Amino acid sequence: MRGESRPHDQRNVSLMGYDGYESGAYAFLGIYFTIILISSVIGYVVGSFLMMKIFDKAGITDRWRAWVPVYNTMIFLKLGDVSPWLLLYCIGGTILLAWIGIGVLFAIAMQVLLILAAWRIGLKLQKDSVWVVLFIFLPVVWMAIVAFDSSRWNPNIVPASWAGNGFFADRTVWQGVPVQAGAAPQGYGQPGYGAPQGYGAPQGYGAPQGYGAPQGYGAPQGYGQPGYGQPVPPAQPGYGAPQGYAQPGYGAPVPPAQPSYGQPAAPQPPVFPPRAPQPPSAPPAAPQPPAAPPAAPQPPAPPVPPVPPADPMQPPA
């Protein structure tokens, strides 16, 4: 009896060990996926918040755009002068072609597009090209620096090298997202090229108020090209064009009128007649008599007779 029960006990011990191993594996997977989920939520919140700050600098009106997955990355590419539709191509290629091993190439291409967009955004925020290295290794740190530093958005930079490529360059116009001037190549919008709608000057970077063209330096009226009619010479600033002036070969010149040799104009009568003199408001005051008559002159005093000397021999004084 004891010999028969020993194999049965060993089977129970082995089943209990297998059950314990399976429970430990499930617990490990549960903890792992929980950590991954929490990390993803934290990364999404932090990344969306930093992207919202960058969008504020770029002049994007609605902040909710930074909190929509995939759409916020498309706007990030658009600010970096890269076509936002390329992101959808890369995501679709990664998902659909992953089963044959080509999907990883689309994932790498998506990372390259993000690096190019970060490089262009850094240039518009007064960052050197070397800052893109920080984005490659620590993208969250890069976003935090450009989001909270004192740099200002300046889209008027040198156009991208791929700006003339219709596949890679940004040609989209979305309401609420400013069009970037650096997305268009040099010379884009000249006759024969048809500039797309919405590619105007960026908001906040136009000519300062009060600095218009100086008076007298505008385009002369009636100034045409040779062969299209008699041209009118442009007026010099502050000096009117002389009457009858014409270029040689376009007709006999009319001499200008000599100053001060014409018939003088007749004097014009005054508009209002002269006013009559007004009488004085009061007659002049009569002279006042003196307060007291002048005093009569006093008669001169009689001369004093000489005093006879005491000594008759002494002459009088």
Q: What characteristic shape results from the CA principal axes?
A: elongated
How many β-strand stretches?
Answer: 0
Q: Note the total helix count.
A: 6
Question: Helicity, in percent?
Answer: 25-40%
The major β-sheet equals:
none
Q: What is the rounded distance between the termini? A: 201 Å
**Percent of residues in beta strands:** under 5%
Structural class: mainly alpha
Instruction: Tell me, rounded to a whole number, the average pLDDT.
Output: 74
Instruction: Using the CA coordinates, give the radius of gyration.
Output: 52 Å
Order of helices and strands: HHHHHH
**Uncertain residue ranges:** 186-214, 216-230, 237-242, 244-250
Walk me through what this model shows.
37% of the residues lie in helices and 0% in strands. It is mostly helical. The protein has a domain at 2-183. α1 (2-58) packs parallel to α6 and α3 runs antiparallel to α4. The radius of gyration is 52 Å and the shape is elongated. 15% of the residues are buried.
